[in-house]
Specification:
- The chain is an alpha/beta fold.
- The protein folds into 4 domains: about 120 residues, Response regulator (Rossmann fold), CATH 3.40.50.2300; about 160 residues, P-loop containing nucleotide triphosphate hydrolases (Rossmann fold, 3-Layer(aba) Sandwich); about 80 residues, Helicase, Ruva Protein, domain 3 (Orthogonal Bundle); about 60 residues.
- It is about 45% helix and about 10% strand.
- The protein is built from 19 helices and 14 strands.
- The chain has a 5-stranded parallel β-sheet with strand order 2-1-3-4-5, sandwiched between helices.
- Helix 2 runs parallel beside helix 3, helix 15 crosses helix 16 and helix 18 packs across helix 19.
- The radius of gyration is 26 Å and the shape is globular.
- It starts with 5 loop residues before the first strand and ends in an 18-residue tail after the last helix.
C-alpha cells in the first residue's frame, strides 16, 4: 500500500478500541480513535479520514446517529458499522440509509479487511489512492468547511459527471477545477481553461470550437479549438453564466452528441472531454430572466460544489498569508521572512470582500514595499486601505450595492419582508431570493435582535 488509508475508529469499549486499532495498524492503515460519537465528530474537525469504522451500540450517540451526523458534515464518507447484536432488520435499515457495510462482532479479520478495501475502492477518485493528497496540493486550507468540499471533489473526480463550481469571485474556483482534474483518471491529459465572459461571442465560439480557413474575415488558416486541445482531458469553462445564448445552444448540442463542428466547417469531429464549469452568478435568477438555458444548466450542474468565501474560513488566512509571503519573497525579496504576529492578526480579522485573490494582492504589495525581514502591522494596514480604494469590478460593485440596499430597506422596515419588497419594487419570492444570495436573514433586523449581527 503506497499511501496509508486513514481510518477513524469509534467504540466506547476502550480495550476493544485498542485491540482493533492495533489490528488495523498492522495491516498498514493510519488509525485515529474515538471513544464516543461526540468525540468522533470532534476528531472530524481535526483530521480527514478515508473511512469510519464504528460500533453500533454506544451510549449518548449510537452508530446510526453518528452516521447521520457524518453524512451532514462529510457527505459520501464511507461508514462501516460493527455490532455484537447483529440482526437482519438493523442491517437492512442501516444499508438502506447509506451505511456501506454492517458486520457482526466478533468480526472475522479477513471479512473486515475485505469490507474496508471494498469501501475504499468505491470512494477513491480515479487515479488517487487513499492518503494521497498530491492532487489538492495547490489548495491550502485547514477549514472544516473547505475540507468537506474537497472530500466531495475527490469523490466526484472518479466519475466523468459534469461539475459546476460556484462561489464568489476570487474564492479559488479554477484551483478547485484543476484539483478535480488531478484526482481523476484524466490527470495525465490536458487541463484547458477559458473565461467565457472575457471574449466577444464570435471569438469565444472560435476559441471553443475552432474554425475552418475563411470562416470569417481574418481566418487565414484553420484553427483547432479548445475542445480539441482538451481531448481526453478536462475543459474548464469559467464564468459560464456570461456565455451568450447562441453559444449556450451550441455547447448543449456538443454535450449531447459528443461532437463539435468548427465555425465555417460542414464536418463534425468526435471529442472526449470532461466539462467543469464555474460561475459567481446566480444561475437560477439568470434562468428566470431568460439569460441562461435551463436544459444546459441541468447538463452542467450534475454535481454542484460551493466554495465558501474567505471570511467563512478565517482560520485559513494566517496559513495562506505565510505560504504566499514565502512565494512572493522567493520571486522578489529573498530576505523577507514573514509577517509580525500583529500583522497576521490584522490579516485574520479583515473582511476580505475580494477573497483569496485580494489576499494575494495584499501580500504582494507588502513584500514589494517592505524593507525589513518581518512585515509590520502598519504596512498591512496601508495595503488593506489601498485595496479598499481600488476600483472594484462591475460585478463586485453591483453585488456590494445590492447588499447595502437590502440592509437599508430591512432596517427601515424592521425586518418586515412584505414592506421591504414593496419599497424595492419586487415580489416577495424575488426578494427572498435576493436575501438568500447575500446571506441576509430578515429576523436579525426585527426590534430587539442583536445589532452586531446586522452586517
Amino acid at each position: 500500500m503506497k499511501h496509508a488509508a486513514h481510518v477513524l475508529l469509534v467504540d466506547d469499549d476502550a480495550s476493544l478500541l485498542k485491540l482493533l486499532g492495533m489490528r488495523l495498524e498492522s495491516r498498514g492503515y493510519k488509525v485515529t480513535t474515538a471513544e464516543s460519537g461526540r468525540q468522533a465528530l470532534e476528531r472530524l474537525e481535526q483530521v480527514r479520514p478515508d473511512l469510519v469504522l464504528s460500533d453500533l451500540r454506544m451510549d449518548e450517540m449510537d452508530g446510526l446517529a453518528l452516521f447521520h451526523q457524518l453524512q451532514k458534515r462529510a457527505p459520501g464518507l464511507p461508514v462501516i458499522i460493527l455490532t455484537a447484536h447483529g440482526s437482519i432488520p438493523d442491517a437492512v435499515s442501516a444499508t438502506r440509509q447509506g451505511v456501506f457495510s454492517f458486520l457482526t462482532k466478533p468480526v472475522d479479520r479477513d471479512e473486515l479487511f475485505s469490507a474496508i478495501d471494498d469501501a475504499l475502492s468505491q470512494t477513491q477518485g480515479g487515479s488517487v489512492e487513499a492518503g494521497d493528497d498530491s492532487w489538492r496540493s495547490a489548495i491550502i486550507t485547514r477549514s472544516p468547511q473547505m475540507e468537506r468540499v474537497l472530500e466531495q471533489a475527490r469523490m466526484v473526480a472518479g466519475s466523468d459527471v459534469s461539475v459546476l463550481v460556484t462561489g464568489p469571485s476570487g474564492s479559488g474556483k479554477e484551483l478547485m477545477a484543476n484539483a478535480i482534474h488531478q484526482a481523476s483518471s484524466r490527470a495525465d491529459k490536458p487541463f484547458v481553461a477559458i473565461n467565457c465572459g472575457a471574449l466577444p461571442e464570435q471569438l469565444l465560439e472560435s476559441e471553443l470550437f475552432g474554425h475552418a480557413k475563411g470562416a470569417f474575415t481574418g481566418a487565414i488558416s484553420q484553427h483547432e479549438g479548445l475542445f480539441q486541445a482538451a481531448d481526453g482531458g478536462t475543459l474548464f469553462l469559467d464564468e459560464i453564466g456570461d456565455m451568450p445564448l447562441p453559444l449556450q445552444v451550441k455547447l448543449l448540442r456538443t454535450l449531447q452528441d459528443g461532437q463539435i463542428r468548427p465555425l465555417g466547417s460542414t464536418a463534425s469531429i468526435g471529442i472526449d472531454v470532461r466539462i467543469i464549469s464555474a460561475t459567481h452568478r446566480d444561475l437560477d435568477r439568470a434562468m428566470s430572466e431568460g439569460d441562461f438555458r435551463e436544459d444546459l444548466y441541468y447538463r452542467l450542474n450534475v454535481v454542484n460544489l460551493r466554495l465558501p468565501p474567505l471570511k467563512e474560513r478565517a482560520e485559513d488566512v494566517p496559513l495562506l498569508a505565510k505560504y504566499l509571503v514565502t512565494q512572493a519573497a522567493e520571486r522578489h525579496k529573498p530576505f523577507v521572512k514573514g509577517f509580525s504576529p500583529e500583522a497576521l492578526n490584522l490579516l485574520a480579522s479583515s473582511a476580505w470582500p475580494g477573497n483569496v485573490r485580494q489576499l494575494v494582492n495584499v501580500v504582494e504589495q507588502c513584500v514589494a514595499l517592505t524593507s525589513s525581514p518581518i512585515i509590520p502591522e502598519a504596512l498591512v494596514s496601508q495595503a488593506l486601505v489601498a485595496e479598499e480604494n481600488a476600483l472594484p469590478s462591475f460585478n463586485d460593485a453591483r453585488a456590494g450595492f445590492e447588499r447595502s440596499y437590502l440592509i437599508k430597506v430591512l432596517k427601515i422596515t424592521e425586518g418586515n419582508v412584505t414592506q421591504a419588497a414593496r419599497i424595492a419594487g419586487r415580489n416577495r419570492t424575488d426578494f427572498y431570493k435576493l436575501l438568500g444570495r447575500h446571506d441576509l436573514e430578515p429576523g436579525i433586523f426585527k426590534p430587539g435582535a442583536n445589532a452586531e449581527e446586522m452586517g
